[in-house]
From TrEMBL, chains A, C:
PANTHER family: TRIOKINASE/FMN CYCLASE (PTHR28629), TRIOKINASE_FMN CYCLASE (PTHR28629:SF4). This is Dihydroxyacetone kinase subunit DhaK. The keyword Kinase applies. InterPro entries: DhaK_1, DhaK_dom, Dihydroxyacetone_Kinase. Residues 7-331 form the DhaK domain. The keyword Lipoprotein does not apply. PROSITE patterns: DHAK (PS51481). One of its GO terms (molecular function) is phosphoenolpyruvate-glycerone phosphotransferase activity. SUPFAM superfamilies: DAK1/DegV-like.
């Protein structure tokens, strides 16, 4: 394992400390237990939004703390959900009197820890609602599984819900739009290479020189199937087809096309994938209204990418375009 | 002879030792069908509780130790295992509240409450390839032992043995809860890391108990 | 070689096509020969700024085309300087009557091809000046070498010169500030892993499981020395010390600290490195006024990072803060 | 017998073939001490000129062929090699302008002008571990051959042989120009890719010439 780290046990602490120094204008970082809070929190009269989860997916979530998006992020150990304490602290820190929304990716650990924190916050008189994202079509949803995973769609939920909160929506309204974005978002990813969790020291799985994993999760969880590498256009087709057919997205739909890198993928490959994805949508009469291309929700240094489609309505477009000022996503100010 | 505060503290100490010792093994099991952090998570949690044991007030009961363990795990482990084990120990603590010394029946009550806590939070059924598949046979075995008149220590040993078998028996299963469920059929052929850690934790309890009896 | 590509010979074309589709609001892309031009070019009465070089360093340069930064970018084949034709075409396309600045990284190929293009543009009556960036302290500068390489400092030159052009400075003024930024910027990088040029199909060099390359260039050119991997803090010290001592940067200086990822480095590691870099500067009494952390000039999927320091003056700070709207760098609008 | 338009066209064709054939080898040499694109760059450039050869107007001279080659390389190769070889062929073209058939002296003039063009643009001296280290001995050898009365073909063969030796002789050198110079001492022990491509290109010229003589 080669990484730019010191003690594997201190990776998250030291990285978040660096983040705090680099973005002191945007965030305040509390340590022990660690959570990242918008510098001007709590914003009175605004719904607070807290998200979090295991570290290793940066810029998710700390990179999205700031005006128009999250009020706080709670990073756990690498790929490990945070415990309830920092979630509770973050929830208290961002409560501006209008309640707090938890945006939680659908993993057993995240759901359970956020649940506990929400119970504790409620006991302290803070109104909390949770939206659980589960946009990954790679895993069959069923009563007999943990359900679909929350992946790249989470970024879109955070941006759009963040804008709704910023314009003054109520907790119910913010939760409703967050649910709506999640319900209209679908994703699927693939990996060329595994990633290595610092404290594990070994790659999360192994792939032969000519193999790729289709349907990969964002924790290096193996996916749907392992196949021989194919040209980029075929790989894009393998991801976008199930995404399109799941919702389904149909001719005339307006979408946001999000091509996300897994952390170790060069931009040149992401845009190359974007080209094919746009072509497929064009062929199907699906209109790309907005785009996002880059490493926005990652798995450490994993190489690979995911494709997310979000079916847009006018309100979502307006909220997507609204100003946002965070470390990783910024426009309009 | 029942299991008292000394046993309870020893259980936690031995559990911490076992989690350290098997840290890499549990990480590797979790890498196969999960995300490779289970050993790290458990080790972090049990290391965190050790210094707190020294601050237990005089007159503490096994229930107090279990509660301390529960709250520490909840606030340090994270992931799925943190809340699940946290709830297990919290409910176990409640089931033997106030008792100074646990007899075989108390051991059964404790284990059953622990298992029920996990099921309450995690909604897994036996056969879903989770830690429940170690806890459930452990509870049954403990009940059987206690009903046939075994000592608390022997009851706990029976539970530990059954948990170990239960962990092994998760290998052919297809996971239906937790991260491994994303793998579907491909989860078969691997042991569930949480079931294995459960086996180690109950083995630590049994070892602490037999040590107490022989001492 | 595992990459998200189709035909290795079409990587740049297809990727730039994707870029054009994703950023149609910002840029227009001309093909054959390929160059990326600001959508509203030529901006009348504004100095045009053109940069370019081999592809594989994305977001450099196309990601910096837009308001307040570049007017055009000319991507060559991967790691290969573009030929004079597209540079000439780009130069003509962005000439708004006030002349054009070429920002060229100091590599023999880039310098020669931009020189030829400038000669041809001059023959067409366009006033062209070139600024050659050479901020890499890894390579000893000497009469007997090709001189220092232009690396991450180039991004800072492009941003600040771009802002000067946007506010209406003359060609001489824009060139002067570009020279000033280059003269006050120093960089050094390292790599954990090599990168693989698509048409080569093999890694650019090999490193053992426990080796890193100190002083790496942005084309996978081996650097100063190969050492056993060390903790992140030591690696940061190995990069920042020669950077500080070269200019030198001294107590009381105000700087921009730029921690750049080589393309395959996860953010968690970049911020961890930033933490140590900030600590070193603090110890030396050097004041961090501005920061930039991320993958801004890369070597395909190479893992590693570089540290750049720019000694700031008031004008540079003002120009750094000025609005910029490009695919990869955006604020203030 | 001098070298005429047929020879010139054949030289370019054989050069293209040689660059294709040695593409991977030149990439690998460049990977060692550069950025791994030299073979790709040269192959792209020479492939681009092939279709244009068919459009040469009747009455074209070797100089016209060299000029076409020069402008094509300049506009398709990029990198350092594009402008350097481009300038070389442009100056070589100029040195034999209007001549229908090149004798040994013309071959020397052509090679010398090419070498000087490279030095003018790249400022490298012999011993800097660049293509100049193949071109310079080639010019000297050609001059020696021509002075001792060799034919144009033999003169070119002498140049090609000297270039090949010159390329080999770059191996122990420490690079002082181009990308390899960044390596300092570590550039020693590797052959310069540009010197090697020069050797192949001159060999192609000599082969075309000897083919012409024997035909
Ligand atoms: N719903 C559930 N019910 C019971 N146990 C579960 C459930 N989900 C996960 N587990 C247990 O948790 C273990 C994984 O724990 P850990 O790796 O620490 O957490 P995470 O999966 O969040 O990384 C699994 O091996 C399994 O035994
Ligand atoms: N200044 C120079 N003078 C002469 N030849 C040079 C000079 N710089 C580079 N070269 C030649 O160019 C070759 C590299 O060409 P190429 O790999 O195509 O370009 P780049 O270095 O831009 O990738 C070197 O092997 C060397 O022979
Ligand atoms: Mg985990
Ligand atoms: Mg796990
Ligand atoms: Mg090159
Ligand atoms: Mg090269």
């Amino acid at each position: 394992m080669k990484k730019i780290i010191n003690d594997p046990k201190r990776v998250v602490d030291e990285s978040v400390a660096g983040f705090a120094l680099a973005h002191a204008d945007l965030v305040t970082v509390a340590t022990d237990p660690i959570h990242v809070v918008r510098a001007d929190a709590p914003v009175q009269g605004k719904v607070g939004i807290v998200s979090g989860g295991g570290s290793g997916h940066e810029p998710l979530h700390a990179g999205y703390v700031g005006h128009g998006m999250l009020d706080a992020a709670v990073p756990g150990a690498v790929f490990t959900s945070p415990t309830p304490d920092p979630i509770l602290n973050a929830t208290k820190a961002v409560d501006g009197g209008k309640g707090v929304l938890h945006i939680v990716k659908n993993y057993t650990g995240d759901v359970l820890n956020f649940e506990t924190a929400a119970d504790l916050a409620a006991a302290d008189g803070i109104e909390v609602r949770a939206v659980v994202t589960n946009d990954d079509v790679a895993v069959k949803d069923s009563l007999y599984t943990a359900g679909r995973r929350g992946v790249a769609g989470t970024v879109l939920v955070e941006k759009i819900a963040g804008a709704a909160a910023e314009r003054g929506d109520s907790l119910d309204q913010v939760a409703e739009i967050a649910e709506r974005v999640n319900a209209n978002a679908r994703s699927m990813g693939m990996a060329l290479t595994p990633c290595t969790v610092p404290h594990a020291g070994e790659p999360s799985f192994t792939l032969a020189e000519d193999e790729v994993e289709i349907g990969i999760g964002i924790h290096g969880e193996p996916g749907r199937e392992r196949i021989k590498i194919e040209p980029a256009d075929s790989l894009v087709d393998r991801l976008i087809t199930p995404v399109i057919e799941d919702l389904p997205f149909s001719s005339g739909d307006r979408v946001l096309l999000f091509v996300n890198g897994m952390g170790g993928t060069p931009q040149v490959e992401l845009y190359l994938a974007y080209r094919r994805a746009a072509e497929v949508l064009e062929e199907r009469g699906i209109r790309i209204e907005r785009s996002l291309v880059g490493n926005y929700i990652t798995s450490l240094e994993m190489q690979g990418f995911s494709i997310t489609l979000l079916k847009l309505d006018d309100e979502m477009i307006e909220l997507w375009d609204a100003p946002v000022h965070t470390a990783a996503l910024r426009w309009g100010r | 002879m029942g299991l008292d505060i000394t046993w309870a503290v020893d259980w936690v100490r031995r559990s911490a030792e076992s989690m350290s010792e098997h840290r890499v093994e549990l990480i590797n099991l979790d890498r196969e069908i999960g995300d490779g952090d289970h050993g790290e998570n458990m080790d972090r949690g049990f290391q965190a509780v050790l210094p707190k044991l020294d601050d237990l007030p005089a007159g503490s009961t096994p229930s107090d130790v279990l509660k301390l363990l529960a709250t520490t795990l909840i606030s340090t482990v994270g992931g799925a295992a943190g809340p699940l084990y946290g709830t297990a120990y919290l409910k176990a603590s409640g089931a033997v509240g106030g008792e100074v010394s646990l007899d075989a029946d108390a051991v059964v009550r404790m284990l059953e409450a622990g298992r029920d806590g996990i099921v309450l939070r995690g909604k897994a059924e036996p056969g879903d390839k989770t830690m429940v598949d170690a806890w459930s046979p452990a509870v049954e075995a403990a009940r059987g032992a206690a009903e046939s008149g075994a000592s608390a220590a022997t009851t706990l040993q029976a539970a530990a043995d059954a948990a170990a078998e239960g962990a092994v028996a998760t290998e052919p299963l297809v996971a239906r809860k937790g991260r491994a469920s994303y793998l579907g059929e491909r989860s078969a052929g691997h042991r569930d890391p949480g079931a294995q850690s459960t086996a180690y934790l109950l083995a630590a309890g049994a070892a602490a108990a037999s040590n107490g009896t022989s001492a």
